[in-house]
């Protein structure tokens, strides 16, 4: 297995920090890095009875837009289709309410203050 690049390592760190922030807020993790043909879900969390599909975006700098802005319509479309695939393969959750959150981080990925949690960032 190839070694992750420094960019991948920063992304992995951002995902771990985002999960920790959400767990500290009382959510529980159902899945990490769920992949299928449609795409990838960084985190699938549970907030009470709600299934939360989380996209974690990290940007070291915002020269080309913020981390949150990078979750454009095309990315949202892929996330929605991937979430549908996840629910089809996890029937016990299929009838639960769902939402899409974005956790955007800029600057130092090890600093929790650089994270912005956008609940219900977009809808289906």
Explain how this protein is built.
- It contains two helices and five strands.
- The protein has a five-stranded mixed sheet.
- The chain has one domain: Trna Endonuclease, Chain: A, domain 1 (3-Layer(aba) Sandwich), CATH 3.40.1350.10.
- The mean pLDDT is 91.
- Strand 4 and strand 5 form a beta hairpin.
- It is of the alpha+beta class and 124 residues long.
Strand proportion, as a percent range, falls in 35-45%
Radius of gyration, rounded?
Answer: 14 Å
Q: What number is the mean pLDDT?
A: 91
Largest sheet: 5 strands, mixed
Tally of distinct domains: 1
Q: How much helix is in the residues?
A: 25-40%
Please report the number of helical segments.
Answer: 2
Structural class: alpha+beta
Uncertain stretches of 5 or more adjacent residues:
none
CATH class call:
Alpha Beta
Q: What is the architecture at the second tier of CATH?
A: 3-Layer(aba) Sandwich
Taking strands numbered 1, 2, ... along the chain, how are they ordered across the largest sheet? 1-2-3-4-5
Which helices and strands, and how do they pair?
Layout: H1 6-24, E1 28-36, E2 39-47, E3 50-59, H2 73-88, E4 98-106, E5 115-122
């Amino acid at each position: 297995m190839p070694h992750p690049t420094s960019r991948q390592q920063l992304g992995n760190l951002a995902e771990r920090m985002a999960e920790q922030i959400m767990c500290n807020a009382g959510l529980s993790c159902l899945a990490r890095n769920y992949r299928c043909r449609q795409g990838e879900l960084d985190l699938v969390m549970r907030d009470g009875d709600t299934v939360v599909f989380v996209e974690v975006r990290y940007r070291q700098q915002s020269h080309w837009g913020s981390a949150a802005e990078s979750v454009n319509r095309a990315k949202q479309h892929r996330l929605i289709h991937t979430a549908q695939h996840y629910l089809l393969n996890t029937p016990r959750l299929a009838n639960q309410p769902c939402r899409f959150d974005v956790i955007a981080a800029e600057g130092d990925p090890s600093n929790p203050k650089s994270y912005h949690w956008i609940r219900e960032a977009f809808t289906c």
